[in-house]
Amino acid sequence: MKPTDAVRDFTRLQRDLWCREYLTSILDFDGETVAPENGAAARAEAMGVLSEEHHRLLTSQSAQDLVAELTKQQEAGALDDTTAAELRVFARDQREALAIPTDEVAAWSRLTSEANAVWHKAKLANDWASFEPYVDRIVETLKRHASYLDANRDPYDVWLDQYERGMDAASYDAFFNQVRSTVVPLVHEIGAIPTKRPAFLDACVPEAAQMGIARDLLALEGLDPAGCALACVEHPFSDGFAPGDVRVTTHIYEQDVLSNVFTILHEGGHASYEQNVDSAYDYTCLAHGTSMGIHESQSRFFENYVGRSRAFMEPLLSILCAHAPEAYEGVDAGTLYRAANIAAPGLIRMDADELTYPLHIMLRYDIERMLFSSEATARDIPGLWAKLSRDYLGLEVPDDARGCLQDTHWSGGSFGYFPSYALGSAYGAQFLAAMRGDGVDFEGACAAGDLAPIAAWLRDKIWRWGRGKDAQELIAGACGAPFDATYYCTYLDTKFRELYGL
Amino acid sequence: MKPTDAVRDFTRLQRDLWCREYLTSILDFDGETVAPENGAAARAEAMGVLSEEHHRLLTSQSAQDLVAELTKQQEAGALDDTTAAELRVFARDQREALAIPTDEVAAWSRLTSEANAVWHKAKLANDWASFEPYVDRIVETLKRHASYLDANRDPYDVWLDQYERGMDAASYDAFFNQVRSTVVPLVHEIGAIPTKRPAFLDACVPEAAQMGIARDLLALEGLDPAGCALACVEHPFSDGFAPGDVRVTTHIYEQDVLSNVFTILHEGGHASYEQNVDSAYDYTCLAHGTSMGIHESQSRFFENYVGRSRAFMEPLLSILCAHAPEAYEGVDAGTLYRAANIAAPGLIRMDADELTYPLHIMLRYDIERMLFSSEATARDIPGLWAKLSRDYLGLEVPDDARGCLQDTHWSGGSFGYFPSYALGSAYGAQFLAAMRGDGVDFEGACAAGDLAPIAAWLRDKIWRWGRGKDAQELIAGACGAPFDATYYCTYLDTKFRELYGL
Question: Where are the domains of chain B?
Answer without folding.
Answer: 1-99
